[in-house]
Design brief:
The complex is a heterodimer of chains A (about 750) and B (about 325). Chain A has about 750 residues and is of the alpha+beta class. Chain A has a 7-stranded mixed beta sheet with strand order 3-6-1-13-10-11-12. In chain A, α10 packs parallel to α18, α14 packs across α15 and α17 crosses α18. Chain B has about 325 residues and is α+β, with helices and mostly antiparallel strands. Among the domains of chain B are: about 45 residues, Uridine Diphospho-n-acetylenolpyruvylglucosamine Reductase, domain 2; about 100 residues, 2-Layer Sandwich (Enolase-like, domain 1), CATH 3.30.390. Chain B contains 13 helices and 11 strands. In chain B, the strands form 3 sheets. Chain B has a 5-stranded antiparallel beta sheet with strand order 4-5-8-6-7. Chain B has a 3-stranded parallel beta sheet with strand order 1-3-2, with helices on one face. In chain B, strands 9-10-11 form a 3-stranded antiparallel beta sheet, sandwiched between helices. Classes of the chains: A alpha+beta (about 750), B alpha+beta (about 325). Chains A and B meet through α4, β29 and α19 of A and α8 and α13 of B. The structure holds flavin-adenine dinucleotide (FAD) and iron/sulfur cluster (SF4). The site of flavin-adenine dinucleotide has 31 residues of chain B, from β2, α2, α6, α7 and β8.
Chain lengths: ~750, ~325
Amino acid sequence: MIAIPSIPGFLTAPNGPIGKPVSRVDGRKKVTGNAHYAAEFTLPDLAHGYIVSSAITRGRITRIDTAAALALPGVIHVFTHENRPSLAWFDRKWKDDDAPKGAPFRPLYDAEIHHALQPVALVIAESFELARYAARLVHIEYEAAPHQTDLRANRANSFTPGKDKGGFQPPPKPRGNPEQAFLESPVQVDAEFTQAAEYHNPMEMHATTVLHHDDGTLTVHDKTQGAQNCHTYVCNVFGLAKSAVRVMSPFVGGAFGSGLRPQHQLFMAMLAATQLKRSIRVELSRPQMFSFGHRPETIQRVALGADRDGTLRALIHEAVQESSRNENYVEIVVNWSGQQYKCDNVRLDYKLTRLDVHTPLDQRAPGAATGVPALEIAMDELACKLGMDPLELRLKNYAETDPNTGNPFSSKELRGCFQQGAERFGWAKRSPAPRSMRDGRELIGWGMAAGVWDAMQGQAAAKAVLGVDGKLVVSSATADIGTGTYTVMTQIAADVLGLPIDDVTFCLGDSSLPTAPIEGGSWTVSTVGSAVKAVCDRVRSQLVTLARKLDDSPLTGVAEEDVLFADGHLIVRDDRSRRLSITDAMRGSGTLSIEEEARALPYLLARARHTFATHSAVFVEVRVDEDLGTIRVSRVVSAIAAGRIINPKTARSQIQGAVVWGIGMGLEEEAFTDHRLGRVMNHDYAEYHVPVNADVPEIDVLFVDEHDDMVNALGAKGVGEIGIVGVPAAIANAIHHATGVRVRDFPITLDKVLAGLR
Amino acid sequence: MRSFTYARAASAADAVGRAGASGTAFVAGGTNLLDLMKADVLRPEGLVDISRLPLDRIEETAEGGLRLGALARNADTAYDERVQTRYPMLSKAILAGASAQLRNMATNGGNLLQRTRCYYFYDTATPCNKREPGSGCGAIGGVNRIHAILGASDRCIAVHPSDLCVALAALDAVVQVTGPDGERSIPFADFHRLPGDRPEIDTVLRPGDLVTAIDLPAKGFAEHSTYLKIRDRASYAFALVSVAAGLELDGGTVRDARLALGGVAHKPWRDPEAEAALVGKPATPDRFRAAARVLLRDAKGHEHNSFKIELAERAIVRALTEAAERKGAPRP
Ligand SMILES: Cc1cc2nc3c(=O)[nH]c(=O)nc-3n(C[C@H](O)[C@H](O)[C@H](O)COP(=O)(O)OP(=O)(O)OC[C@H]3O[C@@H](n4cnc5c(N)ncnc54)[C@H](O)[C@@H]3O)c2cc1C
Ligand code: SF4
């Protein structure tokens, strides 16, 4: 066991807000339109930018004629690679906190075209409509060069990347003798799986408003998951002093990873604002939302070998994914397969294929959302071949320790997820044979899958200011992309200091606040929450010290760990009549405010010796029309083990939203590329399908108790991503159970089922 | 957006007069036209706003049918009690389309004249004969999951995306038009055209022609009819295949039949021979399948949409079966 630094006073408040279904503290602002998003800020001299997107996929611009655009009254300027100012030279200046190995894309850098819809010019005009119109008058001639966008056609040219991106380790070395063990296994599954490219498509399109102030400083309202990441980027690229720019993103209308890297609208708006010395807004159109990062298309092979009793003997998982020519985007895909089940002979292999596309980008549970479903379908196929219950097979091969590393898990209640989820769903009543359950013309299928995601933690700082009125303001430069960060941080602070929720304000989305990393990977509660707790603990110690110094203090001689904080009071644990209000403690000692800053780090020693992960079990019922192949998800139970749940209401929303996306991944979402043009063709919400309300049944979420005192001082893992992992597989398995048709290509549109129903 | 002139029509005659000039378009609900203008696909120089013309009523006709005003909203039409009870397949078809918000704005005339949802038509950086005659057809050999299996040409394989129109075709509706040459009535089957070598022309309307109403004949197949729409998600998606089916039954025998397919061609697809194959025959799935095969006999798939042929056959059998079952008919 590793000794964990004990931090005083946490969760001592009886009946504190942690663990309560507190409603969003920013909810009222959101529903009344008082939450302002990046494209909603303005100044009187605001000018509007519209981006011209490349008409070709690869080649070069031979001529740009902006005369017609500039001739329109109200058009201010057209920026192109020909007239842009000179900017940072070295690649490292263009790197951001989520940049993989390689040379980041530079907008308007030169005449070369690297991918479809590449931004090639920026028109600035007095109104949005005018800028858009003028953008169409920019005449561009190209010399096209051959491009490659087809992963399948190019997979032979793949290579093995290294540790090319933060948060992702290359696959471990093979263990045992997987090829031979597979050949010798009496029961085998060996199949290929595909996952279509998906675009993030948050409701709010990417936008940046740069407010140019009279003193020359800039306030940049950007849609981002990391205000400081963007701050560093714009300072580096435009050679600006840190103090001359402030990046804000207090509200983000969804991002799902699309805001992890500075996107080109930020560059464009900054370019115009710094050159024209004006306030500028640039907002992407919906089709332009298909011009940058995406969940990469993936081809996988999973081979499983087992004994007749279901013992896994061999596990081989190979994946090849697309990346761009300029960067090695990696999300490894296969590693969770080595971690999820006990198996002595394992080979995991991950490759990239360079295509003429924009660099892919992390999208909700990157890697796991793609790789785990392939494994979990293969497990279902194996269960079918064995004549074994799929849940039974998973329990049979349950990994008590992490097979990839040999280390124990800091906590792992996956067994509880299986049991409680199965019970809630009624799994025991499942009739095992495919096509054995029906309701009129609908075939009914029950499928399940397990899910896993990493429980990461980074470093963050937070600041707390407690006023003599008992009001607390805590801040950190993190983001709330709709996840509930405002609310959860408020709860943690209120809990530590025993304050009513309404007396605590949490500030985020501002580069000038204490350092926090980009909001991704489900690590914000862990990372920023730990900093919030740490800083509030300091305030707490200060208060105890102040209180004890007062004449006739009820706390005289009481040790800090024996003081409770509740209802705005300091209370002696064993004699609750001895109490003092926070305001009295401060007033009595002549303190107007207490200000503290603290930084929280992960427990590195514990992290080196344990695997930290969240787990899930998903159970799905589908109904498939036996003649038409139309598929309807009619019931979902998602059982989650993610340590302490700080707020069951916002956490449930995260899981439900992720399940909805899982339904989209499973059945609907797909960017169709015309490989002759190298261009995604269904680039709007009418034809790029995500689930609508009518597609989504009631989603039953349950959180399994999981105690973890190694993961962080809160005992909480994140819940932003685990909810999606496994859902597509559970759907595919349910479809097989309903129809006997096995589909391994996501999304499972009705034509794929129909082909098997014939 | 490009600059354009805007005029509000005072009367139908005024609208026709103003629209005579080339480059002028009527705007009704605007749910299709304005999107296409923003995407720079359509570039009218002038808009004639007809949305306030008094053509929004739904009235009885002397022949015992209903006259649907061209400017009646899709939602008002679908929820009109007479439409619901006398032409339930029409009501069902409208409600299967778009979203509640769009149906509140969209007009019946506009629905007839909405343009295809072909991806290439919408993307001005790609070839499209319908958008830019002579530029080529991007969908042929490209991404064509949603495209035609019937009546296409080597210039265009787009489909007409409307649901409403499929039911109107099945019901033998008549489109009332007033134009520079006066008024005329166009049988629904003749209203939309096949792409041939002029895919840029969707209908037989001439410049300046204004649709004033759509007449429904008395016969609505209220007892045995349905509209079945098959799509990639449960709502807010265009049809991969849709079927408007109406039967007149005498015991278990078909007396009269109507069958129209949507999502498969440049116009709602009907074939008198397929309907004739049903008449006088028992209402059984085998007969339905035989009729489906007649209707689909010339169907031809492309890279991504061949599945529509089998899907259409199955959908026809299902729709006719449901229609037959509707009111106490013997279960086939
Ligand atoms: C996202 C989305 C999803 C949709 N899904 C569906 C669906 O599933 N099924 C479906 O059927 N439809 C669907 N629609 C299309 C919708 O039904 C049409 O946009 C609508 O019916 C058009 O009517 P409008 O009055 O808004 O037409 P407008 O946009 O005003 O006009 C469309 C065209 O008709 C012409 N026009 C209008 N009225 C007349 C007239 N009286 N005489 C002559 N010309 C006229 C206009 O000049 C213009 O060319 C969808 C639309 C959108 C945007
Ligand atoms: S199918 Fe018709 S609309 Fe589509 S690209 Fe071809 S010509 Fe254009």
